[in-house]
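Invent a record, attention on tokens:
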Amino acid sequence: QVQLVESGGDLVQAGGSLRLSCTASGFIGSAPAMGWYRQVPGKERELVAAISTLGTTYYAISMKGRFTITRDNAKNTVYLQMNSLKSDDTAVYYCAQYYSDYYYHEAPARAWGQGTQVTVSS
């Protein structure tokens, strides 16, 4: 069974930076595509960024330029570097692993992490 463990969430001031990590376990071979989502109370979970097995990246328009997704296949870990944080970035951030080796629109996830809280104070 695939397990995803996120870390790195914290309280940070507006304009600051954070790096989230998500380590996957419970599967054999290279991890397929991975993604980061976020959710605030009362709203639907939204995609932040995704990365294919070979490193092709996809970003939500509002996050492109401030957030960077990377992965280390040797460590089965995906990262989300978040810069120039705004109060609107406050959310629970979730890591997801897809069935496919590449991300496509509304690709289904086969596993989710438990979430890590990011709070940006203004």
